[in-house]
Automatic annotation (TrEMBL):
Keywords: Signal. It comes from the Bacteria. Residues 1-21 form the signal peptide. It holds the Pfam family DUF481. InterPro entries: DUF481. This is DUF481 domain-containing protein.
Length: 248
């Protein structure tokens, strides 16, 4: 089996419009684009690609963030008659947008959040949420920081069986960052949404190492879990990835 790791650089151009006559020039953006791909041949034939766009904006009174992510996997399978065909075995796209209003006290915010996930092979093929809440930085040193959020929300989803679900949720989230050195950063993100019949959890553990002023290599392990899933689905999905991150 021969494996080739493909991690091409990705360039992103973002334009943010306002209803009011206000130019975005001069406002602080912190953007990143990451992409990773693995292609295998020989005894195992397949291709998987993962990518993510993350745009953050800091204004005097507002902090905004937009995240677009995608993952798919194709692999070669052998049918009962011996024919070999390529089939899609994973396909997931997600988008989230968050606007946070800065309170008078440092690092305290009130936020509104909307997310949407399409997962063709997941326990929930579609999962959308909206919510509001309060966030703050609970811990801060030169090398460590911890942000937490909590608030109510509402979800609407479609299970893989076609059954529709909706209801109120309570969401909690935490984001830990640890600066290991001038070139290495460890992060741990966790979010949990508790609804009437399901607990939906997301977690990512990642290590970033700086290549130069704009390029980083990122190794990550992510976990998605639902406590209430159809009988033919597993509760937990995991993903291990190595990507190249371009910051601008």
């Amino acid at each position: 089996m021969k494996a080739i790791l493909l991690i091409p650089a990705l360039t992103l151009s973002l334009v943010h419009g306002y209803a009011a006559a206000e130019s975005i020039l001069g406002h602080d953006w912190n953007n990143s684009a990451e992409l990773g791909a693995i292609s295998t041949s020989g005894n195992t034939v397949g291709t998987s690609v993962t990518g993510k766009l993350d745009a953050k904006q800091e204004l005097p009174d507002w902090s905004n963030e937009y995240v677009l992510a995608g993952y798919f996997k194709d692999e070669q399978v052998t049918k009962a008659d011996g024919e070999k065909v390529r089939e899609r075995s994973a396909q997931r796209y997600s988008f989230s947008a968050k606007a946070a209003y800065k309170l008078l006290q440092d690092h305290d915010k009130l936020f509104a959040l909307a997310t949407h996930v399409n997962d063709k092979f997941g326990a929930y093929t579609r999962y959308s949420t909206v919510g509001v809440g309060y966030g703050t930085e609970t811990y801060k040193t030169p090398d460590h920081s911890m942000d937490v959020e909590i608030g109510p929300g509402y979800f609407n989803g479609t299970r893989s069986t076609g059954e529709m679900e909706s209801g109120m949720t309570v969401r909690g989230a935490a984001n830990l960052k640890w600066k290991l050195s001038d070139t290495a950063l460890f992060s741990q993100n966790l979010s949990v949404e508790r609804g009437t019949s399901n607990i939906h959890s997301l977690a990512e553990t990642a290590l970033r190492t700086k290549i130069n002023s704009t390029m980083q290599m990122k190794a990550a392990f992510s976990v998605r879990n639902d406590t209430n899933v159809p009988e033919d689905k597993k509760n937990t999905d995991t993903q291990t990835s190595v990507t190249l991150v371009y910051s601008f």
